[in-house]
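This entry is listed as follows:

___
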Amino acid sequence: MDQVAITGSGVFTPSEIITNDELVVAFNAYADRFNAAHADAIAAGEVDAMAHSSADFIVSASGIEQRFVMDKTGVLDPAVMHPLLRQRSDDEPGIMAEMALDACTKALTQANVAAENVDAVIVAASNHERAYPAIAIEVQDLLGCGGFGFDMNVACSSATFGIQAAADMIRSGSIAKALVVNPEICSAHLEWRDRDCHFIFGDVCTAVLLEREADATGPRFTIRSTRCATQFSNNIRNNNGFLRRTRPDGLADRRDMQFMQNGRKVFKEVLPLVSAHIQDHMTDEGIGADDLKRLWLHQANKSMNDFIGRKVLGRTPEPGEQPNILQDYANTSSAGSIIAFSRHSADLTPGDVGLICSFGAGYSVGSVLVERRG
């Protein structure tokens, strides 16, 4: 059975940034418009007035200070409050494929691997722009890869589930190299008009190249073990399904057509699930808390990550042990843990062990134990 290694990673970051201050100005203007339009109903107690948001509230609730997005113009327009993504013709590359091309090229360059030598492309993401043809096949075509491609969706855990799928195929000998790509346009599924969640998400794309360790030509992270688990819950959901370009008539007020979350229940139920998953995985692989050099967690909420870090390590993590990119990127769904891995892994030395973990809707949780080599 072939040993598998991650030999390259890449991150595509959109050029547009929305700061908390910018977001609050837009949201509060929308709230004022809403309250004015419904003044009589609010006075009669039939409709609740919309409260203002604030930068302090956002940081306190999430640890987020800004987010990258594919379009900020629509999001910051109180009359629109969603990204304005141009409808592309069927002859043009899709927006997710275009993002993926950038991240994949960076991962291939780092690994010193030519695209034509890649056997499989897996696009693993929580938000897809269409049902079919598979975005992965489009990415495969744009890159010039051989083999095959397919899409998968396990919400915020998509990256780790994709890594396990690719690693299993390489271990079995059916393929030698695979790209796992996570293009996330979370801004198009976020309800920017909801004070409880209007600040949560950002856009990004990440990619990792997996290959047989015997074929690696430079530094790599050997995958020692992977583990995935799911447990059904409806506390995080999106009933719309696929990425929307505009708000179609009849859907504009369907709140369930965008990101929905019962935050209190999620916090209470997900934290013990994820902590136990990581601890059990480490125990079964003979990895103690003191053996773990780094913990690359899904970037959902700073308080959640701080709790998990303390639970797993049995103490407050030291600076650098649990990198946080949430303040810069916000929650980027499946891509968050991979951004943290890509940005904060080069300093590890041979023999250092780390763990990539993602978790989210489903509930789902996936973990990947890696060891620095080369």
The first strand starts at residue 4 and ends at 12.
